[in-house]
Amino acid sequence: MTTHNEAAAAPPDENSIIAERRSKLAAIRAQGIAFPNDFRPQHKAAALHAQYGSAAAREALLTEPVTVVVAGRMMLKRVMGKASFATIQDASGPKADGRIQLYITNDGTGEAEHAAFKHYDLGDILGAEGTLFETKTGELSVKVTKLRLLTKSLRPLPDKFHGLSDQETKYRQRYVDLIMSEDTRRTFKARTAAMSSIRRFMEKNDFMEVETPMLHAIPGGAAAKPFITHHNALDMQMFLRIAPELYLKRLVVGGFDRVFEVNRNFRNEGVSPRHNPEFTMMEFYAAYVDYLWLMDFTEAVIRQAAIDAHGTALLTYQGRELDLSKPFHRLTIVGAINKYAPHYTHEQLHDTDFLKQELAKFGVKPHVISGLGALQLALFEETAEAQLWEPTYIVDYPVEVSPLARASDTQPGITERFELFIVGREIANGFSELNDAEDQAARFQAQVAAKDAGDEEAMFYDADFIRALEYGLPPTGGCGIGIDRLMMLITDSPNIRDVILFPHLRRED
Fold first, then answer.
1. What DSSP letter does each residue of 338-356 carry, written as one string?
2. Buried residues in 400-415 as b, exposed as e (16+ CB within 10 A)
3. Coil, strand, or helix at residue 395?
4. What is the pTM of this model?
5. Relative orientation angle of helices 182-204 and 291-310, to the nearest 10 degrees
6. Are strands 417-422 and 392-395 parallel, antiparallel or unpaired?
7. DSSP state of 400
8. What pLDDT was estimated at residue 481?
9. Closest CA to 181 of 156, 201, 163
10. Where does the pLDDT of residue 452 fall: very low under 50, low under 70, confident under 90, or very high at 90 and above?
11. Any bridge partners for residue 143, and if so which?
């Protein structure tokens, strides 16, 4: 049984806190000063810490006062009679550098402003003007002369020591997660740094950034199940983009020899720690190169992005070393099976009946028209893929699972295609592009047959793309890099949702 004293000591629930804060806001509204928009901060916490971090610089503040104007969210508050302290946080740096302490006194601000401050709450956004000084404990602070409440926070922040403890809440309320978690802020700053690096690298190598449609009349460029929508004015069914590939290759036909796009793709498929229905890819196409050139270039893009975002190509992922500085390994599909599942014989790996029976043990039911290459690929995915920790290119994919890739001139049934795997996950997919319009038309027809036979991920026949190829696509290489999965590696994040600001979740009850 709860005693009267225990009940009195219990912390208030969130609803009562919100009600109290709304009451404070109502009082502020009555004074006509709620949510002002005429305060302009002139200094950031990180820059102030950097400029006045040395002992000499702080000593100089005693004789040469420096006036600053700062703003940020109040994260800490201590009221001590005639003097109070508050710590505000802005977006300028890591936890310590992105915060600065305010010192509020009756003498500095006047009794009225100090009294008002005592009713402010954690989470409120404040603007302050004052002079810099160093406290007795050595902390750079602002002796406040003017203090304003810029935004009243109606909801309480989570416990300062634990932040948001529920992972789903972190994803769903990313705005609170960003307020409370320096690790989360660091992750997304690293993502931005990596994306800036990729764009600089592409432009340095004469690639032009372009934008292609997200709404497609015909889904194409990948084997995936699309999201379907309807355009009312045109009265036609449309599809959210599953890949920009066919549009980018149209641009190469048009004479842009090197193009790239950082694009959002949408695939109506499962959700997992490495799959989100909406995700980011960087696809690029270069005329007069092949898949061997692409592998070298893709490796360089990824390595530089890691260096620019992380400071080094030597990473640690989930407690295990990952070295992106060395040349990436290269294996064929069969070679990878031989390395990671050596108990299979040459004869078994080339026996379609055996492969079907073996795949059934893994719960895989190959499509009835699957040929030898597709069966070998399926076995690779079950036995070897997850073991490819170090960066490894798997090469020489079969034609039947590569409808847009150029066939090998020397190996029947094989295409000039690769997939890059790191820590057991596919990171990139590229190939020498198929530029033979008649061959591409036949490949599309085969995809249509597969779709008619029940394969929901098979491609549609794109007549306009065939028409574009008939005008002539120069020898071309193209590749797509999964940005979200790459960011997982760079930021040591175990789940794709950790590197997407607003990942998709089930609707709240």
1. HHH-TTS-HHHHT-HHHHH
2. bbbbbbbbbeeeeebb
3. strand
4. 0.90
5. 140
6. antiparallel
7. G
8. 98
9. 163
10. confident
11. 103, 131
